[in-house]
Amino acid sequence: MNRRTLGRGRIVIGVGAILALVACLFPWGQTAGVGLPPQQTGAFDGFGILVFVAAIALLALIVLPYAAGDQPIPLDRPLAFGLVAGAGIVGFALKLWQIVSDGLLALPDRAMGLWLAGIGLAIIVWGFAELLAERPRV
């Protein structure tokens, strides 16, 4: 049985990933009611799907060592967390560019998902910095 502690960096990454997953349920952009009906976009329209996939992959990376038992897992390294988080950030940036170019950028009252995803990704970056500062696992 694996009795290792989770570590602060992985906990912070997990919180950010859960927040990014919740953000995918809300609208990411909407017009101000100019058209009939107002246009709206979400996480699953375009590059925002990368944020969803990255959040699930980060949660899987956190749980993976505990599912494998006593065997060391080669994926349980900060590099794997950094690559997956980087993919999520790239997806967020591309989706933000798409939203701005379509004129759907809005305040948090009409685009709560975009803002929550940005906060979630910022928390993931903070957790990655904490993970880099931790002592390496054996």
What does this structure look like?
With 138 residues, this protein is mostly helical. The protein has one domain. 59% of the residues lie in helices and 3% in strands. It is built from four helices and two strands. Strands 1-2 form a two-stranded antiparallel ribbon. α1 runs antiparallel to α2 and α2 packs antiparallel against α3. The longest helix is centred in the middle third of the chain and has 25 residues. The radius of gyration is 17 Å and the shape is elongated. The two termini are 15 Å apart. The model has no long low-confidence stretch (mean pLDDT 88).
What is the mean predicted local confidence, pLDDT? Answer: 88
Number of domains: 1
Write down how many β-strands occur, each being a DSSP E stretch of 2 or more residues: 2
Structural classification: mainly alpha
Distance between the termini: 15 Å
Oligomer: single chain
Range of strand content: under 5%
Helix/strand order, N-terminal first? HEEHHH
If helices are DSSP runs of H or I spanning 4 or more residues, what is the number of helices? 4
Rg computed from alpha carbons, rounded to a whole number of angstroms: 17 Å
**Widest sheet: strand order?**
1-2
Outline:
By secondary structure, this protein is mainly α.
